[in-house]
Amino acid sequence: MINFVLLALLLIVAVGIMRLQDLFAVTMLLSIYGLMSATFFVAMDAVDVAFTEASVGAGISTLLLLVVISFTGRAERKTRHKPYVALFVVTVIGMLLLYGTSDMPYFGSSDAPIHNHVAPRYINDSMREIGVPNIVTSVLASYRAFDTFGEVVVIFTAGIAVLGLLSVSSKALSNSQPLNRPRGLYQQHIVIRIVAKILLPFIFLFALYVQFHGDFGPGGGFQAGVIFAAAFILYAMTFGLDAATAVVKPAVIELIAAVGVLLYGSVGIATLLSGGNFFDYDYLLADPIAGQHLGILLIELGVGLTVTCVMVMICFGFSLRRKAHEQKAVMNISERGPK
Amino acid sequence: MILGLANTWVAIVLMMIGLYIVIAQGNLIKKIIGLTLFQTSVFIFYISMGKVAGGSAPILAQGITEYSNPLPHALILTAIVVGISTTALALSLVVRIKETYGSIEEEEIQAQDES
Q1: pTM to 2 decimal places
Q2: Which value does ipTM take for this structure?
C-alpha cells in the first residue's frame, strides 16, 4: 500500500514542478521529488538504487541547479502562446503507452518474463561463482562489468565536456583584485560552519564505509563517490571556494578522475593478459573466488575515484566560472570609476 | 487485481508531465528539469518491474528464499549517476547560452537569432 501513497505524492510534486514559475521553488520541489522516489525504491526492495537516488536526486543535482540559477536568475517568463499542440501530442503519446500496458505482466508477479531470463542464475549461482552476498554488486561489477566500464567512461566524458565548456583561465582569476563585496554563507553563518565542521569527518568516514562494504550490504563505488563528492562540495560551500581549492587543486582532481577510469580499464587488460576474457576476474589470482574479490575491489575503487572527482570537477567548474564573472563585473565598475 | 498495473500507469503519467514541460515551457532550465522528470519515470518503471511480491532486497542472507530481481537495480543504479553527469553537461550549455544571448528563454533567443 505504501507504494501507492508514495506514487500519489510523486504525482502531486510533479504537477507542482510543472505549474510553478519560480525556478528556486521548482529546484526545491525537485529535491523533494528525488528524496521521495528514493523512498519508493526502498519500498521496491531496490536499496542500492535508493541510496544513489537519495544522494544524487536530493543532493548533488539540487546543488548544481542552485549554482546555475544564481547565474541565470530565478524568475521564469510566462509564455504567451497557449500550449494546445503540446497538450495534444502528450495526450496521444500517453494514451498509446497506456494501451501498450494492456498485455504487461502484473506488478509483483513472479512468473513475469523479466524474472525468468538471466535473473535466476544471478540469484542462485552468484554466491558460488562470485562469492559476494550483494547480488547487485555481483551483477554490476562482475557479470556486467563491461557495461559498467562504458558508463564510467560516459561519466568521465561528461566531466571533460563540462570542463571544456566552462573552464576559465587561472590568469583571469588571479589577476583581478580581491573582491570587496558582501561575503557569502561561509562568513556569515557561524552555526552552519561549526555544524559542517563536526559533520564532515563522519560523512567522509561513511563514504569510505559505503565504498568498501558494498560487497556485503547496499553500497559501492557509485554511491560512495557521490557521497564523498557531496561532502567535499559542502566544505566548499561553507568555507569558500578558495579554502576548497587549497585542499585539493583542480588539476589534481582532473588527474584522479582519469586515474579512476585507467584503473578500471587496466583490471580488464590484466584479465586478458592472464588468459581470461575481458573482465573475467577468475584468472586474476590462483583462486577464482579470491580473484573475483580482488577484481571487484579494484574496479569499485576506480568507479569511486572517477565519480567523486567528476562530480567535484563539475561543481568547481560552475563555481569558478561564476567567480570569474563576479570579478569581471567588479572590474568593469571600477574601470568606469566615479566620475 | 485491478491495481496490478498502477505503478506502470503512474510512471507513464510522470513521463508525460516531463515531456509536456520539455515541449511547452520556454525556459531552458525548466526544460532540463522536465528531462529529469522523464528520466526518473523510467527509473520508477524499471524498479517496479523488478519487484517480486513477498521478495526481499537482493542481498543474500540465510532464511530468505525469495529475492527481487537484481538486474534492473544494477542497470538503474548506473543510469542515475550517468543521468546527473549529462544533466550537468546540459546545465553548462545553458550557462554558455546565458553568457552569449543574455537570456535563457527560448523565444528571446530565437528572436535574437532572426534579427
Answers
A1: 0.90
A2: 0.94
